[in-house]
Amino acid sequence: MATDIPTLEQMYIDSCKRRDILPNTEILSGFFKAEVKKSCNELCSLEIILDYLEDIDVPPLLDVCATIETSEIEAVDIRNGPSCSLNGECALSLMRAFNQKLRAVDLQDSPFGKDFLRFIPRELSQRGLACQILNLRSSHFRKLNMAGKFMQIHTLNLDFSTSLTSFLEDCFTCMPNLICLSMCETRVANLWTTISALSKLSCLVELRFQKWLCCNGSASPSASSGGNLEDQPDVGLPISCTDIGEQLTDTEEETYLNPGTDEEFGNLFSFNNIAINQPVQSMMEDSSDDSEVDFSSNWREFDYTDLLANLSSGWNRQVNLQNEVSSGASLNQKEESLTGSFGRHIADVPLKYTPRHASPICFEKHYREYMIASLPHLKVLDNLPVRKIDRERAAVTFSQYFEYLPYNRKHKESVVSILHKREIKETRSHIQSKNQKLSYSYGNSQYFYTRSLCAAKVGSSAWPFLHSLSVSGCDLGDGSRSFRPRQFEYHPSLSSLMVFGTLDGEVVVVNHENGKVVRYVPSLGAMNSVLGLCWLKKYPSKLIAGSDNGSLKLYDIEHLPPTVTGMYLGAGSITFDDFDQLTSVHINSTDELFLASGYSKNVALYDISCGRRIQVFTDMHREHINVVKFSNHSPSIFATSSFDQDVKLWDLRLKPIRPCYTNSSSRGNVMVCFSPDDHYLLASAVDNEVRQLLAVDGRLHLSFDIEPTRSSQNYTRSYYMNGRDYIISGSCDEHVVRVCCAQTGRRLRDISLEGKGSGTSMYVQSLRGDPFRDFNMSILAAHMRPNSKYEIVKVNLLASCDNAKGYSKSQDSCPSNSMGG
User: Fold this and answer.
1) How far apart are CA 654 and CA 656, in angstroms?
2) What end-to-end distance do the CA atoms of the chain give, in Å?
3) Interatomic CA distance for residues 750 and 193, integer angstroms
4) Distance (Å, rounded) from C-alpha 406 to C-alpha 793?
5) Regions in the chain scoring below 70 on pLDDT
6) CA–CA dist 669, 683 (Å, integer)
7) How far is Cα 812 from Cα 45, in angstroms, rounded to an integer?
8) Helix, strand, or coil here: 145?
9) Alpha helices in 407-505 (DSSP H)
10) Do 594 and 534 meet the contact criterion of CB atoms below 8 Å apart?
11) Which of 789, 782, 815, 778 is nearest to 484 (CA)?
12) What's the rounded Cα separation, in Å, for the pair 324 and 235?
């Protein structure tokens, strides 16, 4: 007589007996439920809830895992809740033991097992997992690096991983079959690095960084609803914005908005239901200053009527779908279109839409269009279907507001190919016919190959190389010390030199290529924060330094000792008359005169050779003058910018009683500077209002489309880079530097600054383009925390860095955000 084959339940009990362990009732219950499903001809699945397990329960369960592989159990689901205390290694060994039967894994932070989701992301990233669905909610990882094998995974949910800010470039290459990805309420913000990482996902059809919901819970057309998305009519926003192919009840919506219990967490990600209950293939076929912003609270509830009105008036910050509604369509026409498309009349009941749990990336201007244009296989974005008309409009928007590659290159080329063309002296006309003729006026210039090489290198990675300028080699008599830079300037003729002034009144000349101090001047109580620095052009060893207490000095670094070990006697310096509350100094093109401005309406003119103040021009503005700049070529022309919202151009030959012209912004002006050829003036006002003026008469040439933050303290500074080809702009309430084409205003890249550790983003205090190296710059940045210290971060857009180091040193300065260039 044949012996009966023991059930999984019996095998588990036997294993517990051998180990002298009491069987876990929840495990027994799981086996029983699987048997019931099998008898009812349902999907025979085993669910394991880690909250009910202790470390001692894992070994006997592992004993039966090999049998489960060959049993009639079709799938194993594992999840944990807030009360899980299981050791991370035990949990991972259990997940891996189920192998190909592992279907869904739900993991979230556990207050009782503190190492659980610190240990698991690291192990998962290194070794991978065989599951199909991974819901990972953790506050313990900031940069996603999934390097292990995830060959089976088709759905990844990282919602509410509130420390997640960015990805490594190749973090998704290990997931060749990933179809659905959700990252709601993460801190991901950079469009360029995000797209660079997501572009590795050739199968990705559904993506979300926020969740659009319809308050009445009606179903929406989507990738999995059976319709052809490409052919759907242009009806504005869909009738509802619920999840893919399902209708949220009031209870389910509340669950999503207020996750908490074990049961609630299991319902967070609607992709779960799709992937579990529908084959993956069918889904593919159906688819054709010191504070941080709380992004989750900035959206407001609105109804359909409000939406149409706001879209037509360009309300783009809160709804990035303004192109969905044509400017000439009336509300009645839209209602008729909606009624015909969806078979229901909605005129009597205003439909309300609420975007929930938006990540910061959703607040970027033209976010939706950028995503659609950059991911050609995407079918659903933020629960909204991507139609043919959406792609057409996205392409137009992308070409209007973004630059795919520098210098308007349309296609990526290899550096080797460009060098080969240069060596064989291929005719420029032939090259331009392949690359589409440049829109720049200097497209036929001698710089063609240089710009082509730059375009190739910048286009090779969205992750530029960033590193903090580490200063060493200065013997201060008290061992090594840490400087607190507050202002800096590149040398105009010596490519390796930079000078920076500190919050403590020191002036430091440094070789920024090797980090060695060349000259050091202590404050000795004579200076406070150094806010004004300017090199002489004809005398490259000399510079002017001004501090906020009004002190003004000229230093000759050739006559300064290289190190300071004793008392500083003031050798190699000239002292000028003080200028009270100084914020800015600048020298004219002949090195004869310099100007000083500050917290007043006046500007002082100094004679460098005589070492004295010549004149004070009074009441040049209605409010204090933040920055004064001489032109680069005319020794008598200078510009001023003031918080009275005016930028003015002056001529010393006219004894500046009245300006040559005045140009006004809508906010107070923080910065103004001339382009290297003096063709333009670049004016930066509070909260990202950046404009380029024609220097000859002050007419507006270009207004850069940078999204404001609605903060009156968001002081913006902008400078030129690569001559006058590009501008770089940063603000003191934001951790990003924007690179824009100075000819078209199109955005080329955003450079995000991140500190070391969770929640330590950095803000931009000041910045300068490197005058000798294309697509290189330095940024004066500080951490977004009290008592943070400034540091200089060097950026090279031509070199990629897969894992830029965090910029961290304990720093104790108090930021002063408003004044100085």
Assistant:
1) 5
2) 93
3) 9
4) 22
5) 1-5, 110-121, 214-353, 425-446, 472-480, 524-527, 562-572, 755-760, 785-788, 802-821
6) 7
7) 56
8) coil
9) 415-423, 428-435, 448-458
10) yes
11) 789
12) 7
Burial class of 700 by CB neighbour count within 10 A (0 to 12, 13 to 18, 19+): exposed
How far apart CA 591 and CA 588 sit, in angstroms, is 6
Q: In sequence order, which residues have a C-beta less than 8 Å from that of residue 161 and are 6 or more positions away?
A: 136, 137, 138, 139, 141, 183, 186
Q: Which of 335, 337, 399, 355 is nearest to 242 (CA)?
A: 355
**Residue that the structure tokens 């180990």 belong to:** 19
Specify the pTM: 0.79
Phi/psi zone of residue 417: left (φ > 0), alpha (ψ -120 to 50 degrees), beta? alpha
pLDDT of residue 239: 29
State the architecture of 580-713 in CATH terms: 7 Propeller (2.130)
pLDDT of residue 805: 43
Alpha-carbon gap, residue 484 to 505, rounded angstroms? 10
Instruction: Indicate the burial class of 389 (C-beta count within 10 angstroms; 0-12, 13-18, 19 or more).
Output: middle
Q: Report the SS3 class of residue 106.
A: strand
Q: Do residues 367 and 190 lie in contact, with contact meaning Cβ atoms separated by under 8 Å?
A: no
Strands 143-144 and 166-167: parallel
Residues 6+ away with beta carbon under 8 Å from 288:
223, 228, 229, 230, 231, 379
Sign of the torsion formed by the C-alpha atoms of 363, 365, 368 and 374: negative
The answer to whether 639 and 649 have CB atoms below 8 angstroms apart is: yes
Beta bridge partners of 673: 682
C-alpha–C-alpha distance, residues 267 and 277, integer Å: 14
CA–CA separation, 644 vs 640, rounded Å?
11
Q: What 8-state DSSP symbol labels residue 515?
A: T
Q: Greatest CA span in the chain, whole angstroms? A: 117
pLDDT of residue 701: 97
Which tokens hold the place of 48? 């394991």
Sheet order of strands, 464-468 included: 464-468, 790-800, 776-783, 762-769
The per-residue pLDDT for 97 is 87
Q: What single DSSP character describes residue 533? A: E
Q: Domain-by-domain residue ranges, the chain?
A: 1-131, 211-401, 406-458, 580-713
Q: Quote the crossing angle between the two packed helices 191-198 and 367-374, to the nearest 10°.
A: 30
For residue 11, what are the contacts with CB-CB under 8 A and spacing of at least 6?
63, 64, 67
- Residue from 297, 180, 307 nearest 240 by CA: 307
Strand pairing report for 302-303 and 625-630: unpaired
* Helix (H) or strand (E) run with residue 342 in it: helix 331-342
Which tokens belong to 491? 């040398």
pLDDT at 524: 65
Tokens 């897969």 sit on residue: 802
pLDDT, position 100: 83
Instruction: List Cβ neighbours of 123 (8 Å cut-off, separation of 6 or more).
Output: 88, 89, 92
Distance CA 75, CA 46 (A): 6
Sign of the torsion angle spanned by Cα atoms 168, 786, 765, 591: negative
Residue 126 burial (CB count, 10 A): 11
In angstroms, the CA 530 to CA 731 distance is 20
Which residue, among 704, 717, 635, 713, has the nearest Cα to 673 in the 3D structure?
A: 717
Angle ∠(121,122,124) on CA atoms, nearest 5:
60
Q: Which residue has the tokens 């008359």?
A: 577
Q: What pairing do the DSSP bridges indicate for beta strands 75-79 and 102-108?
A: parallel
What is the Cα–Cα distance from 728 to 707, expressed in whole angstroms? 15
- Which 8-state DSSP code applies to residue 324? G
